[in-house]
């Protein structure tokens, strides 16, 4: 069987062809890293019988893997009739080459038992931990086996950056590539990149030149804190109890998305996100209400803009389904709760809530941040806290990588009176950061309350 080499980025030819145990490809956005890896993997599969383990930190469904990238490249190269593509594997009909897809967090022990792996492709490897690497490295023991480690640098403190970029091990080829070496970019995206350079040089260098950040002191919630919270309930041996809640961030318009995060006590158990137009609020509200019925949970919903009408939809759905799902408005711009109370009750010099927070959104984000910090200290230092002062995220949640990114992105900001607030969506957009829908839903699921459910939510007498 003859198959021509697919069209890949010529700048990476030597990277793929140079013999090495570890291939480390990193750099900024729009640099063709993952597309090129998928293309070269497809080409290899047409030439020889290889087993490729496609891994990433969190993968709870096949759509979160590189499965789609491989399918697209197979189609682009006109090779669809050569492959058998099932719901969770891809195999070449003639060579027998096989692609498998695993999430490291949940399946690391299962991966240890896999045999005859030729290539372990770790996508979005910035979240790889040293403990996982210590397991993976000896697992690939076949002669000539390779690791493909591909990522956009996030923090200089990330294990993968320290291990493979700063202190590169033997038998490793590393390549830093950016958009300016990608010959396939459209004029449109080049204009977007140029606009980012003009708006914010530092952000441009991080996003498009792949320059890592320090553990960003400017953010409200540090990334290391969020990572420590993943499966913290298991690490600390604590079972969730108490109220079940769903935070619902309502899409406003354009490219915005709806998102929900469900929590049981201190544990986030479900994450969802979907596209919805302004005129589809009824459909979205029905989706959230169905989840609330399934989990026996209360709903905290964004009541600004389009979300202002969600309460009426929940009331109607309660009547239609003859249930009493409680729902609460969350107005991010509302006044702070307990305004006369001190931010830190244990510090007599601590300012009052009304003097420290600009609005309820800031108070909520800082409250969640404190719980993340407590969890980090409990997991890494053995400090002891009440369950209500901790926070955990189940690794079984979908969209987990995106949630981690969103929670650790918004920065501290201040109003004209010097009170703390959360970086606005407008300012995030200036940094080329999309709206953090999942993170907003997350903080709503853990937001403090001091009032009863929305008026009128209970069933009418004829439905009781």
From TrEMBL:
Residues 22-211 form the Phage terminase large subunit N-terminal domain. Residues 414-436 are annotated as: Disordered. It comes from the Bacteria. Residues 414-433 have a biased composition (Basic and acidic residues). It holds the Pfam family Terminase_3. Gene3D superfamilies: 3.30.420.240, P-loop containing nucleotide triphosphate hydrolases (3.40.50.300). This is Phage terminase large subunit. It comes from Pseudochrobactrum asaccharolyticum.
